């Protein structure tokens, strides 16, 4: 992957929780000016951005999950050192952030949250959806994860534990959903199609193969 | 499908030189700011703030500057520079105003604890 683009004098986010890169700050500045002049409406920009959310990264994350389902050695590696395991497939964050994979099991469901800043594993999940960046999602996901999941149409049994993981600038999470039933005969490519973006955030489950019949 | 897909689908900006695209012909972004600056440019062009030829000229000036990264990974940095240049040329914003805002956003981010939305008003010098 290419080197990051900061000048030698610039700090890189290890001493502060929040840090905007030069380009992030520059685009924010343009957005501020243009909004103040009435030339753009941030909601309209968000809506345009939202149309791309599935186009870039989620396929990368889906390949990571499909490989973990099919290859126990890779799953072990992913559990021990997600940064290296994911990088072995060619997906690395441009800012060199560390990744941790959290595995859903029959007892535990994992959910990741973050802030409005930049704590989202783009390299594997693509662009964050608008709801993920919205303050209500973050605050409510921490206080009432079960309620938030229900709003996404995901009603988990009461005995299932929910763990909420708060991403930081240095450590970002990827949920590995449970492998759906009746998928023993599927190869990695077919399995990857079952892995949605939301299932890797934890607001959804992997699709059942019947969804494609 | 939402309201903005249609306007995006026919935006001439999709024909911008070197624009990274997926196999389906959709623009591809590596980081959220790239999608944001692309979307802003589409909107501004749609509203007649600048013409297609003004845009292509500004963008190609940046794309053909020496010192670009050989792998083209700085494409959207050129895009940001082109849009900034165009907006200053059109007197929509001065470059000093823009630079001040860039610094202000950075200070606002540093002053914001993890878990809180970054807003410009958090800049301690503002």
From TrEMBL, chain A:
Residues 22-203 form the Nitrile hydratase alpha/Thiocyanate hydrolase gamma domain. It holds the Pfam family NHase_alpha. It catalyses: an aliphatic primary amide = an aliphatic nitrile + H2O. Belongs to the nitrile hydratase subunit alpha family. Signal peptide: none annotated. It comes from Sinorhizobium medicae. Keywords: Iron, Lyase, Metal-binding. This is nitrile hydratase. The keyword Iron applies.
From TrEMBL, chain B:
It comes from the Bacteria. Residues 25-107 form the Nitrile hydratase beta subunit-like N-terminal domain. Pfam families: NHase_beta_N (PF21006). This is Nitrile hydratase accessory protein. InterPro entries: CN_hydtase_beta-like_N, CN_hydtase_beta_C, Elect_transpt_acc-like_dom_sf, Nitrile_Hydratase_acc_put. It comes from Sinorhizobium medicae.
């Amino acid at each position: 992957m290419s080197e990051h683009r900061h000048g030698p004098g610039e700090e890189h986010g290890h001493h502060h929780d929040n840090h905007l890169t030069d380009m992030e700050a520059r685009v924010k500045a343009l957005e501020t000016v243009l909004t103040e002049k009435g030339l753009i409406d941030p909601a309209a920009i968000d809506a345009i951005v939202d149309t791309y959310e599935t186009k870039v990264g989620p396929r990368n994350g889906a390949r990571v999950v499909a490989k973990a389902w099919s290859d126990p050695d890779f799953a072990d590696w992913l559990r021990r050192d997600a940064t290296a395991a994911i990088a072995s497939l060619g997906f690395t964050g441009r800012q060199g952030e560390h990744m941790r994979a959290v595995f859903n099991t029959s007892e535990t469901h994992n959910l990741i949250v973050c802030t409005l800043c930049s704590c989202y594993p783009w390299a594997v999940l693509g662009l964050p959806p608008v709801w993920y960046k919205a303050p209500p999602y973050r605050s409510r996901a921490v206080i009432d994860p079960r309620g938030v999941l229900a709003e996404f149409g995901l009603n988990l049994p009461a005995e299932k534990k929910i763990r909420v993981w708060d991403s930081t600038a240095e450590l970002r999470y990827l949920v590995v959903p449970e492998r759906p039933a009746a998928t023993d005969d599927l190869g990695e490519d077919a399995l990857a199609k079952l892995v949605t973006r939301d299932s890797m955030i934890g607001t959804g489950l992997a699709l059942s193969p019947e969804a494609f019949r | 499908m939402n309201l903005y897909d249609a306007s995006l689908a026919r935006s001439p900006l999709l024909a911008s030189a070197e624009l990274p695209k997926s196999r389906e012909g959709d623009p591809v972004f590596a980081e959220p700011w790239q999608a944001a600056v692309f979307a802003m440019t589409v909107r501004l062009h749609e509203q007649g703030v600048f013409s297609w030829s003004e845009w292509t000229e500004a963008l190609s000036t940046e794309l053909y500057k020496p010192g670009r990264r050989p792998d083209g990974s700085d494409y959207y940095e050129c895009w940001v520079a082109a849009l900034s240049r165009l907006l200053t040329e059109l007197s929509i914003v001065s470059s000093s105003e823009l630079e001040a805002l860039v610094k202000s956003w950075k200070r606002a981010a540093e002053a914001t604890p993890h878990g809180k939305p970054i807003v410009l008003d958090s800049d301690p010098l503002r």
